[in-house]
Design goal:
Layout: H1 10-22, H2 31-48, H3 53-65, H4 74-89
């Protein structure tokens, strides 16, 4: 389980993705089981790697490997991370 990183409004990020899920943008995935853990992992990797995209990807993928109940494709996993990182880099465009 990833803990909310400091300096990031993890609740706002989760609510943003919850709204996208409600609009059907994320397919038939279960939000709390499949998407929310990815958001937390993306935010944690963003903070721990200081915005270095290659390091963030490695850190994120390492965290995701431990999510045994994950039912998403690698494309979906990467998409969630990239969107989270863009929103964190430029919150006004999220």
């Amino acid at each position: 389980m990833t803990h909310p990183p400091s300096g990031i409004d993890i609740h706002a990020m989760i609510e943003h993705w919850r709204a996208r899920h409600a609009r059907g943008e994320l397919g038939n995935l279960m939000f709390e089981r499949d998407i929310a853990p990815l958001i937390r992992a993306a935010c944690a990797s963003y903070v721990s790697c200081n915005g270095s995209r290659p390091q963030m990807r490695q850190c994120y993928r390492t965290q995701v490997e431990y999510m045994v109940r994950l039912r998403t494709t690698s494309r979906q996993v990467d998409c969630v991370a990239e969107h989270c990182w863009r929103a964190l880099e430029n919150p006004t465009r999220a």
